[in-house]
Design a protein that fits this description.
Blueprint: H1 3-19, E1 34-39, E2 58-63, E3 69-72, E4 75-78, H2 80-88, E5 93-99, H3 103-113, H4 121-140, H5 147-168, E6 177-184, E7 195-201, H6 207-213
Parallel strand pairs: 1-2, 1-5, 5-6
Antiparallel strand pairs: 3-4, 6-7
Helix pairs in contact: 3-4, 4-5
Length: 227
């Protein structure tokens, strides 16, 4: 057996010992407080970024590019992965989690600018779901911006587009708070690697407005780009 599997199973045994009593109140149902939509990236630690070790608290979804939409025969719809806890478990907070240096955003940027490489069909499909949302953002980028800065600005722009999709859809009640954040491990926002920075709340992106409205988290509200 591959040593990676052996090591993972050993760690799981430790996990099972530690968590053995933590499922007693939720073996038959769940009522998560928040649903998060994160990027499928090994550097984005979905639960650990919140220091969460409580089963049933965070309903985690992940895909490349932290997308909230999927394509169906009827057209684009908000993914059932995201809607399920909102519709069925009374979850009233949704957080879209982008991250600095996102590979999916980079691939979409390259596809839009004509520099994209050929990808397997499944990856091509996922990137194709991102590119329509990012085209206007790419067009709005300053001509003198570096590639690295362009990607990180588009990370915010992509978070904004995903938040907008949730805010605008009828199935997400107005009572649900929709928050967009960026997880930073590249010292883009600060030197505190692993810190989450709020960039959007319910579609509002103006930093001063957000800080005035949400003064309790003012220090955590920051954007790289206002377009």
């Amino acid at each position: 057996m591959d040593q990676t599997i052996v090591d993972l199973l050993k760690r799981n045994a430790d996990h099972a010992e530690e968590f053995r009593d933590r499922f007693d109140d939720m073996q038959d149902s769940q009522r998560p407080a928040v649903v998060t939509v994160c990027c499928s990236d090994s550097r984005v630690l979905q639960d650990h970024m919140w220091e969460n070790d409580e089963p049933g608290h965070v309903f985690t979804c992940a895909n490349i590019g932290n997308r909230v939409s999927q394509r169906t025969d009827a057209g684009a719809v908000v993914s059932g992965d995201v809607l399920y806890p909102i519709v069925h478990t009374d979850t009233e907070t949704a957080i879209v989690v982008g991250h600095t240096g996102c590979g999916a955003v980079t691939a979409a940027y390259d596809a839009i600018t004509g520099d994209g490489a050929s990808e397997p069909a499944g990856i091509e499909h996922c990137i194709g779901l991102l590119t329509p949302h990012l085209e206007a953002g790419v067009e709005a980028l300053p001509t003198d911006v570096s590639r690295t800065e362009a990607i990180n600005r588009l990370v915010e722009y992509n978070v904004d587009r995903q938040v907008a999709a949730l805010v605008e859809i009828e199935e997400v009640p107005d009572s649900v708070d929709v928050v967009g954040v960026v997880y930073d491990f590249q010292d883009v926002y600060s030197e505190r690697r692993g810190e989450v920075h709020v960039v959007n709340v319910d579609g509002e992106t103006e930093v001063d407005v957000l800080r005035d409205t949400h003064s309790e988290i003012a220090a955590r509200i920051e954007r790289r780009w206002t377009y």
